[in-house]
Amino acid sequence: MAAPRKDNVKELITEALEKLMISKSFAEISTSEIASEAGISKGTLYYHFKSKDSMLLYIMDKYLDEQWQEFIDWTSNAAKDTSLPRLVMYVLQRDTNEIDMRIHFIFEAVSGNDQLKEMLNARYRKFASLIAEKISERAISEDSDLDPEYIAWLLLVISDGLLLQKHLGNKDIDIERFIADTKKVAELFAK
């Protein structure tokens, strides 16, 4: 008798991998562990993903698509304060509250996964462009000659640095205070 059919097998696989990545690095996880955690056979796993790397790419795409949509929704919500200072705070808080998966993407990209590196760099460019567009839509003081693209990249670089410090457990930096102080700096450039 055949085993009962499972719906959303791809999601079972990626959820299993994400769960395993809470306590292990991507390199330490075997496809056997992923299949076991998902409650499927290795053959079923390979039916849905040709490699372990393709699973990580799928997760990254899903994660960054969700982050993109949340940002669009937030900046489009007329009921919220989406001024430049709040936008700065939103980007930094959003990017530092989620430490688990993004740190894996960055680590794998800098560890030699060239396909992931290319995809991640493309997403950074896309996010920087969107953030710059949203900054341009907000009032920046007329006496400021700051380029919205520069501010967007600055936010992305700061958020990665804060993410790293949070992941390292650095007690010498109060991330929430740092974000609040960065919002105050943004207030200086807003009308």
3D structure, described in words:
The structure is a single chain. With 191 residues, this protein is mainly α. The protein is 72% helix and 0% strand. The protein has helices spanning 9-20, 31-38, 42-48, 52-76, 84-97, 100-110, 114-137, 148-168, 175-189. Helix 5 (84-97) runs antiparallel to helix 9 and helix 6 (100-110) packs across helix 7 (114-137). The protein starts with 8 loop residues before the first helix and ends with a helix. 21% of the residues are buried.
What key phrases describe this protein's structure?
mainly alpha; 191 residues; 9 helices; single chain
Q: What value does the average pLDDT take? A: 89
The number of helical elements comes to 9
Cα radius of gyration in angstroms: 20 Å
Span from first to last CA?
70 Å
Overall 3D geometry? elongated
Please state roughly what percent of the residues sit in beta strands, choosing from under 5%, 5-15%, 15-25%, 25-35%, 35-45% or over 45%: under 5%
